[in-house]
Write a structure and sequence with these properties.
Layout (H helix, E strand, L loop, with lengths): L2 H20 L30 H4 L4 E10 L4 E19 L5 E3 L3 E2 L4 E2 L2 E14 L8 E7 L2 E8 L5 E9 L2 E11 L7 E9 L12 H4 L5 E9 L2 E3 L10 H5 L7 E4 L8 E5 L24 H9 L3 H10 L1 H12 L2 H6 L22 E3 L5 E3 L20 E4 L2 E4 L3 E4 L17 E9 L5 E7 L5 H7 L3 E3 L4 E3 L4
Antiparallel strand pairs: 1-11, 1-13, 2-3, 2-6, 2-9, 2-12, 4-5, 7-10, 8-9, 10-11, 12-15, 14-15, 16-17, 18-19, 20-21, 20-24, 21-22, 22-23
């Protein structure tokens, strides 16, 4: 098996998620270039030219550090993936045989408009782990400038115009090194840095972000794989490795285990925070490209577009056209699957368990789940003891509406925004109970100028009891 074949085989599963990262927010519903939210694009993982980065709060590099336990003569496989923006303009054929640039070109099935397309790029590297000591390996790469044209023909096959695509030069490098750490196990800290080294410089009025994007690496992310050995989880490491994991420095990207449950030989390091072993929902019939997409809602909304809106979407981008086609041809049974799915069931024990003798069922993997005689949605199964308590014990203190607490978001349940709330004082607005017996505290952060608005609208922040600590006077 060649290095390329082994790398592709190892990364196949992880690429499904990596594709979602690559095209996250690529073209947003309603998938038309004229939509306001499609006029400010390329938000995730953009590595801009160094001349643009410092003064505008963007970055020209990303740094990944992760721990690995290579075995024997292990090799490291690396794949950098990004989008290279290319400008597309529309030209109409004149009567004299020449072409002129126009804001749109109308055809029976689509309306062609200027648009920035994203061409997928890959930079690949295979290197023995033993060669990563010291300065490691450096791989520079160049994507040259270029221009190509595509004729536009009408229904009779006559040329009526053309699309002109221009690509600017983009340069970068990947620097990879590894350091063996002291300790009882053979553990190495792998460092992978991706840099945009393009020599683009601003010129006069053509100096904004739009001018810098064609020389940028958009949605840049890394796939890392070991031919023998494993990586350690950065979010749930073994106890003995927690100190070394905390010392790793990840900048503008975050590494997670990928490649399917139970595997630890592949890492996806992306600008979007994910959990270990992320997966595409099997019910998803195709990419919708919208940030935080909910396939059912997007499919239904896309189906309601007018014929004129669909024509513009088809002319905006080939991927937008594919979404329109997907929504129009989706069978009812496929749409039905998007309505909801049960991923798994678990046994509920302790004070939140169902009253009465539990009916247990053994799953194939040995996990036990409750099968209560009366389902939760049946009124006959309602708790006869009355409404759930509006105050709960937290660290020996009864906490309810009006209590002050200190926020300590749980690492495995948090999102990027919650990290900014670590250590902040908050006011409990309500104690809520879900149908599974879980308890959630609705809070507002002290000092938040929008707290009154949150109360009026009922839009609170939610934390579980083990994510808060009662403050004095609670």
């Amino acid at each position: 098996m060649t290095a390329t074949t082994e790398r592709d085989s190892r990364f196949d599963t992880a690429r499904q998620v990596a594709d979602a990262v690559l095209f996250e927010g690529y073209v947003l519903y309603p998938y038309r270039a004229s939509a306001a939210k499609n006029r400010l694009r390329w938000q995730f993982g953009v590595l801009v030219p160094p001349a643009w980065a410092p003064a505008h709060g963007e970055h020209s590099f990303q740094r990944t550090e992760v721990l690995m336990e290579p075995r024997g003569e292990a090799a490291l496989f690396l794949e950098l993936r990004f989008l290279h923006a290319r400008r597309r303009t529309v030209q109409r054929l004149r009567e004299d045989g020449g072409y002129e640039e126009v804001p749109e070109l109308r055809l029976p099935d689509r309306i062609l408009v200027p648009w920035d397309e994203g061409a997928e790029e890959r930079v690949e590297l295979s290197v023995p782990v033993a060669a990563l000591a010291g300065d490691g390996a450096v791989l520079p790469f160049v994507r040259p400038a270029g221009e190509d044209t595509e004729p536009v023909r009408d229904a009779e096959g006559r040329t009526v115009g053309r699309l002109v695509r221009r690509t600017e030069r983009a340069e970068g490098l990947v620097r990879v090194s590894a350091t063996e750490l002291d300790g009882p196990y053979r553990v190495m800290r792998l460092t992978a840095v991706v840099e945009n080294t393009s020599d683009w410089t601003p010129h006069g009025t053509d100096a904004g972000r739009e001018a810098a994007l064609p020389s940028s690496l958009v949605a840049a992310h890394l796939l890392l794989g070991l031919s023998a050995g494993s990586f350690l989880s950065m979010t749930d490491p073994p106890e003995w490795a927690k100190g070394a994991v905390a010392a790793c420095e990840n900048r503008h990207t975050w590494p997670v285990l990928a490649g399917g449950p139970g595997r630890a030989d592949v890492v996806l390091s992306s600008p979007i925070i994910l959990e270990d072993h992320p997966q595409i929902a099997p019910e998803s019939a195709g990419a919708m490209y919208d940030a935080l997409e909910i396939d059912e809602i997007l499919a239904l909304r896309t189906a309601t577009l007018t014929d004129e809106e669909k024509r513009e979407a088809r002319g905006t981008d080939a991927r937008a056209a594919a979404v329109i086609e997907l929504a129009e041809t989706m069978p009812p049974e496929v749409l039905e699957r998007l309505h909801g799915a049960v991923r798994g069931l678990r046994e509920i024990t302790g004070p939140d368990a169902f009253d009465g003798p539990p009916a247990l069922t053994e799953l194939p993997d040995g996990e036990a789940v409750f099968r209560p005689d009366t389902p939760w949605w049946d009124p006959a199964g309602a708790d006869p003891a009355g409404p759930p308590p509006d105050r709960i014990p937290v660290d020996g203190v009864m906490v309810g509406a009006g209590s002050r607490v200190l926020l300590r978001p749980g690492l495995r349940r948090t999102d990027a925004q919650d990290l900014f709330l670590q250590g902040r004082a908050a006011l409990v607005e309500a104690v809520l109970h879900d149908v599974d017996g879980g308890v959630h505290l609705a809070v507002t952060v002290e000092g938040d100028p929008g707290a009154d608005i949150r109360r009026e609208q009922g839009r609170f922040l939610y934390f579980q009891p083990d994510e808060v600590t009662p403050l004095e006077g609670a």
